[in-house]
Amino acid sequence: MITTGTCLAIIGMVLAVLLSGIGSAIGVAKAGQAASGLVSESPDKFMKAFLLQLLPGTQGLYGLLIGFLVLMRINIFGDVLALTDQSGYLMLYGCLPAALGGLITAIYQSKVAVSSIGLLAKRPEEFTKGMMMTVMVETYALFAAIMSFIVVFMPNLQTIS
To answer: Which of 20, 66, 69, 104 has its CB surrounded by the most CB atoms within 10 Å?
Structure first.
């Protein structure tokens, strides 16, 4: 039996996957535009530009992981848990850090990646510095995903018997 609580958990899962995926798609696209411009002038810089383009895509992976963990937690592949409303809201709210954190950090990380691609174009020897600056934004996406993970796996989910 699918309860309101279970539906709320599924909505949280959808938000985590969808919003972090949208942020990653926007971020990878922006960085990809800058990388394509650089590679058109300097094809030898493809791999470094590609690495910078990839970074905003990780937020989508974090959201996907949280979404999959929610599905596992409610046993979507077996006898689905009939969660109480309270537990459903807990799961929904637990997904929000990964959802919103993924959306926002991917977009901002792409801005740093675009700037780092510009740095790579002008001073290729400074690639590592640009990579480090881009990765700094990643830490906040990781913090958000960790918080979602902790909440999703809180031990006291209540079910309707």
So the answer is: 20
125 contacts: CB under 8 Å, gap ≥ 6: none
- Strand boundaries in 8-156, DSSP class E: none
Q: How far apart are CA 9 and CA 6, in angstroms?
A: 5
Q: Can you tell me the distance from the alpha carbon of 128 to that of 106, in angstroms, rounded to the nearest whole number?
A: 20
pTM, rounded to two decimals? 0.92
pLDDT 10s digits, 20-47: 999 999 999 999 999 999 999 999 999 9
How far is residue 50's CA from residue 24's CA, in Å, rounded to a whole number? Answer: 15
> Where in the chain are the domains?
4-152
Question: How would you class 115 by CB atoms within 10 Å of its CB: exposed for 0-12, middle for 13-18, buried for 19 or more?
Answer: middle
